[in-house]
C-alpha cells in the first residue's frame, strides 16, 4: 500500500506541473475555440493515469522534473526508497519548496527500530485510502439518486426521455447514454438544448467527465486537481455551446443564452461529475462567451491545432537527458561530474552511482552494483565487483594493484558524500569473495584532516586528487 501511495504522490506532483502549464496555455488560447482548451486537459488525465511516459527534448517538465529521473520512464519526486533513507529527501523540482519539505522530514534515530518516515508514509496511505473510499461511496450514492429520479421518465423520441422529476436537461448513462429533459419544454428551447446534449454524446463526454472525476477522487488530496476538474468542465460546456452556435447560426445566441440562464435558476442539485447537466457549470461565463463568440477562420484553426499538438507533446513527455559535452579527465577522474553529484546523503542512490561512474575502474574488475545501508549508524556503501582478469587468476599482486585505487576512490567518496561512514568493497572471483573496508575515521587520520571540505569546489577536489598520489594502503 505504501508503494502505491508513493506512486500516486509522484503522479499527482507531475500532473500538478502539467495542470499549471495547461492553465497558463488557456490564457494564451483565450481567443481560440474552447475545444482546444478542452483537449489540453487530456494531458493532465494522462499524467494522472500513467506513471511512465516517453522522453522528448521538448518537455515542460525539464524545468521542474527531479534531477535523478531525467531520461527515465518515471519521474520520482518522492523516491521509492525514501522510507529506508537515513536522511529522507524529496526532489519537488523547486528548490525552496523542496528544502522546506526536506527540513520537515525527520531523520532516522540510531536507536529507533522503525524509520519515522515509514510510519508517516503508512499513515498517509491509510488517510488517502479512506478519502478515496468515502468519495467513491458518495459518488455511487449520487448516481443512484439520479437514477431514481429518472426511472419514471417517458420516451419522447429515440434516446430522448422526458420527466417531471428533474429541473434541467442532462445526459445520463455510461453504456447507453440518454438525454433527459424536464417536462413542458418549448420547441425553441428543445432544438438547441437537444443539439447541446447530443454534442456531449457524440464526443463521449459522458465517459470523459466521469473518468476525470474518478481520477480526481484518486488524487483528492491535491487541490490543483479539483481546480483542473472545474476548469475542464467549463471548457467542455463552452465548446458544446460553440458547436450549437456554429450549427444553428449566430441568430440563436439570444434565445440560447436565455435558456441557459433560465435553467441555471432552477438547478437540480445533482452532484457535479454524475450527469452532464445543461445549466450546471459557469453560467455567467458561458453566457458572456456565447454572446462574444465569433466563428474562427480555417487558417486560425490550423494554427491553433499546431499549437495544441506542441503543447500536448510538451506536457506528456518526460525530459530527455541533456547531451553533455566531452568531459576532461584529471588523473583519471571526471571532476565536473564528481562535483555535480556531490550529495549530503548516502541514500541518494542515483548520485552515488554517478560518482562511481566518474572514477577510474581498478584493473581486472567489473562493476556489479551497489548496496546502501541507511537504516542506522554507521551509514555504509557496499560496492560490488566481479573479477575479470585476463590471466584467469586473482593473485596477491593483483589484489595489491586494486587496493590502492579502491583506497583513493574511497577517500574521494568520503569527500563527496557527507554522511558516509564506511565504504565496503566486495570482489567476487569464481565463488571466492574478497572484501575491503574503509572507514571515514581511518581516511581522515590518514590525511590528517576531514576530507569533506575538499569536495566544496573544483580547486579543492583537484588538490585532493593530487594528494592521493602519495597515499598508499597500509600492509
Automatic annotation (TrEMBL):
Record-annotated Peptidase M56 domain positions: 8-290
The protein in question is named Beta-lactamase regulating signal transducer with metallopeptidase domain
Q: Which species does this protein come from?
A: Paenibacillus silagei
Highest classification ranks of the organism = Bacteria, Bacillati, Bacillota, Bacilli, Bacillales
Keywords, in A-Z order: Membrane, Transmembrane, Transmembrane helix
Question: What residues form the membrane-spanning segments?
Answer: 6-28, 35-54, 119-141, 211-229
Q: Give all residue intervals belonging to the DUF4825 domain.
A: 338-435
InterPro entries xref list = Beta-lactam_resp_regulator, DUF4825, Peptidase_M56
Amino acid at each position: 500500500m505504501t508503494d502505491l501511495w508513493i506512486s500516486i504522490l509522484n503522479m499527482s506532483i507531475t500532473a500538478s506541473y502539467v495542470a499549471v502549464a495547461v492553465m497558463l496555455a488557456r490564457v494564451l488560447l483565450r481567443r481560440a475555440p474552447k475545444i482546444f482548451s478542452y483537449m489540453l486537459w487530456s494531458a493532465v488525465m494522462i499524467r494522472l493515469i500513467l506513471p511512465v511516459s516517453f522522453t522528448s527534448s521538448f518537455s515542460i517538465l525539464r524545468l521542474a522534473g527531479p534531477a535523478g529521473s531525467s531520461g527515465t520512464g518515471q519521474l520520482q519526486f518522492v523516491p521509492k526508497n525514501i522510507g529506508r533513507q537515513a536522511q529522507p529527501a524529496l526532489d519537488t523540482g523547486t528548490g525552496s519548496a523542496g528544502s522546506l519539505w526536506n527540513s520537515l522530514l525527520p531523520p532516522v534515530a540510531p536507536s529507533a527500530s522503525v524509520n519515522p518516515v515509514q510510519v508517516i508514509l503508512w499513515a498517509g496511505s491509510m488517510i488517502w485510502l479512506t478519502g478515496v473510499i468515502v468519495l467513491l461511496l458518495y459518488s455511487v450514492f449520487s448516481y443512484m439518486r439520479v437514477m431514481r429520479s429518472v426511472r419514471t421518465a417517458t420516451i419522447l423520441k429515440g434516446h430522448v426521455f422526458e420527466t417531471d422529476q428533474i429541473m434541467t436537461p442532462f445526459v445520463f448513462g455510461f453504456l447507453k447514454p440518454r438525454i433527459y429533459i424536464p417536462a413542458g419544454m418549448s420547441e425553441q428551447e428543445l432544438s438547441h438544448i437537444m443539439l447541446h446534449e447530443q454534442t456531449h454524446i457524440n464526443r463521449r463526454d459522458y465517459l470523459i467527465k466521469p473518468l476525470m472525476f474518478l481520477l480526481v477522487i484518486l488524487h483528492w488530496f491535491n487541490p490543483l486537481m479539483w481546480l483542473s476538474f472545474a476548469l475542464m468542465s467549463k471548457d467542455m460546456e463552452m465548446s458544446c455551446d460553440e458547436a450549437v452556435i456554429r450549427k444553428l447560426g449566430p441568430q440563436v445566441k439570444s434565445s440560447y443564452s436565455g435558456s441557459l440562464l433560465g435553467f441555471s435558476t432552477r438547478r437540480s442539485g445533482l452532484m457535479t461529475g454524475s450527469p452532464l447537466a445543461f445549466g450546471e457549470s459557469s453560467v455567467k461565463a458561458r453566457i458572456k462567451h456565447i454572446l462574444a463568440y465569433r466563428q474562427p477562420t480555417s487558417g486560425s484553426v490550423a494554427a491553433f491545432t499546431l499549437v495544441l499538438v506542441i503543447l500536448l507533446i510538451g506536457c506528456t513527455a518526460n525530459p530527455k537527458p541533456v547531451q553533455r559535452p566531452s568531459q576532461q579527465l584529471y588523473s583519471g577522474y571526471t571532476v565536473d561530474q564528481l562535483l555535480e553529484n556531490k550529495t549530503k546523503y548516502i541514500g541518494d542512490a542515483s548520485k552515488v552511482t554517478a560518482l562511481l561512474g566518474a572514477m577510474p575502474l581498478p584493473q581486472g574488475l567489473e562493476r556489479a552494483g551497489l548496496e546502501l545501508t541507511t537504516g542506522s549508524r554507521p551509514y555504509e556503501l557496499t560496492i560490488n565487483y566481479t573479477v575479470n582478469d585476463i590471466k584467469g587468476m586473482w593473485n596477491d599482486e593483483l589484489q595489491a594493484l586494486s587496493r590502492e585505487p579502491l583506497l583513493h576512490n574511497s577517500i574521494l567518496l568520503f569527500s563527496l558524500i557527507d554522511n558516509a561512514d564506511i565504504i565496503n568493497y566486495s570482489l567476487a572471483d569464481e565463488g571466492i569473495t574478497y572484501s575491503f573496508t574503509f572507514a571515514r575515521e581511518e581516511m581522515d587520520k590518514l590525511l590528517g584532516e576531514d576530507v569533506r571540505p575538499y569536495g566544496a569546489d573544483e580547486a579543492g577536489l583537484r588538490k585532493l586528487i593530487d594528494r592521493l598520489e602519495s597515499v598508499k594502503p597500509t600492509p
